[in-house]
Amino acid sequence: MTDTIPTSKIRRTISSGKIVAKMGTNHLGFLLKKPFLSKEEQTLCLKKKDAQNARILFNGLALLRGTALKAAQMLSLESDYFPESIRKELEKSYNQVPPINRALVRKIIINNFTKPPEKVLESFDLKAFGRV
Given this model, what pLDDT does residue 83 score? Predict the structure, then answer.
């Protein structure tokens, strides 16, 4: 992921707004095309839109980390409310989220404890252990 994790309330709100705007724009594009498509083309276009929105949603929530990823995990269980493509994409939040940059983890620990991780923790491994 090339984006940095938004940490302030304003940056997190803006990131959330971008997710909604991208998904809304994608849906609007579908609605504008829909009257000119056959039923089969509408079905294909709808599936494509759902798949694109699923990727937008997952990537946005993965960028926000923390509670947003927990929300993604919970939303992936909602078979009554979301298309299958969205639920499948959100299932990635269980084990396919890129780890946080090591330098960022180190910086967060130093900022919060005023000491490097090696002085605060009994052991500190820079390699993420939860990756599949």
Answer: 85
Q: Is 37 in a helix, a strand, or coil?
A: coil
**C-alpha dihedral, 25 to 29 to 35 to 39, nearest 10°:** -100
Q: How many residues does the chain have?
A: 132
CA gap 28, 19 in Å, rounded: 14
48-57, 70-79, 99-108: lowest mean pLDDT where?
Answer: 99-108
DSSP state of 124: -
Which of 109, 100, 112 is closest to 5 using CA atoms? 100
Spatial CA neighbour of 57 closest among 10, 103, 24: 24
